[in-house]
Structures are given as C-alpha cells and as structure tokens.
Amino acid sequence: MHALFTVLLGLPAVLFLLHVWFPYLRHDLIYISRQFHLAWCLFKIRRSKPTHTILDRFLDTVKRCPEKPFVLFGDERYTYAHADRTSSRLTWILHQRGASRAGDRVALFLENEPFYVWVFLALAKLGCAAALLNSNLRSRALLHCFSCCDASVLVVSAALKKTVEEVLPTLREHKVAIFILAKECDTEGMESLLDKMHTASEEPVPKFFRSRITIKSLAVYIYTSGTTGLSKAVLINHERMWMVSQFQKLVGVTSKDVLYLFPPLYHSSGFLMGLTSTIERGGTIVLKSKFSASQFWDDCRKYDVTVIQYVGEIMRYLCNQPKKPNDRDHKVRLAIGNGIRANTWAEFLQRYGDICISECYGATEGSLSFHNHVGKLGASGRVTIFQKLFISHAVVKYDAEKGEPLRDSRGFCVEVPTGETGLLLTKITKTLPFDGYANNPQQTEKKKLRDVFKKGDVYYNSGDLVTIDKEGFFYFQDRVGDTFRWKGENVATTEVADVLLMVNCTEGATVYGVKVPGHEGRIGMATVILRQGREFDSADTYKLVASHLPSYARPWFLRIQNCFAVTGTYKLIKTKLAEEGFDLSVIKDPLYVLDERKKNYIPMTQDVYNSIRHGIVHL
Fold first, then answer.
1. Torsion over CA of 296, 297, 302 and 304, rounded to 10 degrees?
2. Which of 3, 245, 277, 618 is 20–30 Å from 266 (CA)?
3. Structural domains of the chain ordered from first start
C-alpha cells in the first residue's frame, strides 16, 4: 500500500519532468499514432483486390449519403449523387465517341469549375489517366506540356477556347480529339460536349471498364517546374494519390467539414490536398474559380466554411485587407497549406482568431513531407521518430557558386550541423521510389544524386535549402537552381529567358528571382545583353512577354548589361545579380520596370523605386 502511494505521489512529478525535458512528447505521440494508422490503412488498400481507388471511395459516399452536398459553386449546390450522374453521362459520351478507353491519357485544360471535378470522375470511371494542364499556359509552353503526357484527347473550358485555337493546327496535325465544355462550337477540329449531356445515359459505369487498374497504375499527371527547365509531368499513380489524399485525415478533417478550395485544380495542393483528400473524407468543397481577398471571409460565412487552404502569399493578402468589426465572425477552425511566414502567422491569428494553422512541406514528385503538427510559429514541419525510422533523409552542405552539393575529399556529401542551412535530400528506395517525369529521362536523372554517403546509393534532390533545429523543427529557407516562386507559382527561368531571346534587340538573357520588401517569394528579374548597334525596344519586349508568359512569370525588372559574368566553365553567375536586385544605389546599368497600365517597360526612377520599396506600387 505504501509503495502504491509512493508511485501515485511521484507520478505527477514524473509527468512534469517529461514535459520539461520533452515538451512536444504528447503532440508527437498523438501524431505518430495517426501516422501508423494511416500506414495500416494504406497497407490494406495496397492489398485490396480489386484495387480500391479514390473513385471507389467517392462511389462509397454516393451509396452511403447520396444527397450530401459535395461541391458548392457560387449559388449552385451539387450533391454526391448529382456528381455521380453527371460524371457517368460524360463517361458514356466520351466512350461512345471513341475518344477515351481504359489506359488512355486525356489532357484537361480547364479553369476551376464543377466540370473539372465531373470530367476527372468520368475519366476515372473509364480507367483513363488525366493530365492536369496549367490553365495559364500559352502557345509553345502549352504544346510542350500536352506532348509530355502522350494524350490523344484534350478537354477544354469554354473560356480557354481562343488559347487552344492558337495552337489548333499543330493539335490537328497530331490527330488530337478536342472537346470543349460548351453547348455549341463552330470551330473545325473542336467538338462541343454540353449539348450532348441531356441525351446521354446516366447509368452506372460497369467496373470492367477499369478492371485492369492496379495500385501502381497511373492516375494523373501533375506538372511542376521542378528546379530546371520547362514544366515537367510528374507521374502520380493510385498509390501516391492515396498517400497524399490522406493528409486531411492526418490533420483531423472529418466528413462534416466544409473546405474552401480556391487553389487551381491543376496544382497538387488544389487537386490532391484539396479535391481528392475531401473525397477521401466524404466532405464538402466550396469551389472558387479564383482567389479574392475581399470576398474570402464573406464566402466563409456564407457557406459555413470550417477548413481553408492557403499558400503563404494568400495569408498575407488576407492580413492586408481593411480591418472589419466581423473579422472573427466565422466558423473556420483549421487552415492547411504551406509557405506562411512567422510574422504573417502571428498577425493572422491575432486578427482572425483561434484558427489552428497546419503548415506542411512537400514536393509533388518527392517522397518526403513534413507537417508542423505542434503548431510552432514559423516552422514548416517537424521531423518525427516515424520519419527517422522509415524515411532516410539528410541535409547536406550546398555550394551556391557551383550550384551543387559540397563534397569531401572522398567525393561524398557532407551533412550540415544541426541548425544550419543545407540542401534537403531523400534516399530513393523500393518502398519510397522516385518515378520521375513523363517522357523526360534527362530531367529525371538530374533530380537524382548518386554516391551521396557511400558508393551506389541514390538520393532525390529536392532543390530546397532547409534548416532542422535541435528540437526537430523543419524550416524551409529557399529554392536553388533555375526556379523561383512568385504568387504561389514556380517560375522556370529558362522558359522566361527563351521568350526574352525572341525579342529582336536581345542577344542574351539571364533570369532570376529577387526579393521585394513585404512580399513572399521572389519576383522575376532579367539581365539582358543587346545586339550590337541595337537599342532596347521596350514595347516589343512587353508584347512578347505578355503574349507568351502568364502574369506571374513575367519579369518585372529588366537590367541592360554589356556582358555577363561567367565561371571558369562559362556558367552564368546569377548570385551577385540576385543580391543586387533592382537597387538603384548599386546598379549603374540601365534599369527598366514593367508598367501594366502603359503596357510597356519604363525606365526605373528613384520615385518608382521608393514606391515599390514602400508597397505603394502593387506587384
């Protein structure tokens, strides 16, 4: 009895000491238990015969609660049953016209709208893989991305018809079947879809259409710029789709939640973390065609939103909105996303109330992700015991001058001390493979680092500079290589440079991202060399940039130089250019800035520079 009394008396002291020594132990244990539960669920899904896909999870919800709201769009309300019937009609239309069969690839060039969801479900019912094209793509970039996925069919939003017409001759030359989401179409080579909907059957699609699908079968292509070159098509199989689609379950989202989904559905954040994760939960989506900071909270109140998605810039935009008395009048309890800075995080919570911010880190093609399940301000994630045991990753020293990891005298990479910044690598194994990019073995190989810590090992190069502190918290610092991030989009510098080289007066161009006070990410800047005897043609430059690049990829600043600085192996040195940015106090070269109102590049003046520095000019 005395011994029992002693134990009970000492238990609070033990718990107190555990809390002092391991302040995040409780959070870690809860989170790790969830991770093990998800791993067990995924194990069962892998072994299921026939293969159980996200589509099957959707159909389960249709049977269980057919009238449950699935997609809310404007004043329209669509149930799970409606989505099932509509997608079945599309399935039969596409099948009967011979446009799509099991195993085919179908490219979707669509804006955020309910039919994006219906078309995806229709293709899944046929056993087809969907290639999610960025709706901002134009001309050569659009053709490049389309060709990556070997698609024979293209489904297009009505609003994007003119964009497709610009490349129609090339598509017709390759005998691509093009369907437009409209009730009529008078363009030769395009066929309307919506006029056929009212006569199409809505009978359930037999499972034998997709009977050959396995957990390793291709589900979708999602495009990413990675760290070099034009956009590349990442291969997402059904297994990987399941892995990412369980994220909402991991962070505590339930079937009762309503998710505010504004990220474009061609992004992994919008499609996997948003759409398919909600399907996995059996929840409800408020789908927005575009983000609007001024409408955001009114929408949340209108639809009783409980969960929101974000990228770092979005949270800053919301914090920059005029303050209102009802800022805290909402039902949002959880925000999931990535890229929020510590100061924005603190300001957001102070203004909009006690919202759990679930910050995470991951790459579309990568096998490693981190999640800040503790809610520590500013951290992108936390390294758990689960990840240490089952996922081999490392943070190694990076040589910014050479643009590659630093190697020791034996030729192996060198891990950085705890708390220092380095390049994040993940070991490629059978259980955690790197499938790479469709029809792009060269870029796939570039993402692999060999002989990292011993001969024969292979690691995935994330292209990200990160820090992991002594408590295991993970902090994203920056991206390396020929990519920078602006307004939530990755910009491939080589693509921008190729457009600038199309300008008649330009002989050479190098593109990089530069910091702007008060903004997340980096905005585009280019340094160009003019052809001998030519002057800078600002109007022609703007015309080509505007016609070939989406707004987020257009360089805002142009610097004119006589020659580029190069290394001994004639590689362009961008580091110094990026450091100098558009600072007039250090730049003596001619400098121009984009003026959207004048549709031109105008000379940078001290007044314009000051306006940008102080946030007066909107970028």
1. 110
2. 618
3. 46-290 (3.40.50.12780), 366-479 (2.30.38.10), 483-613 (3.30.300.30)
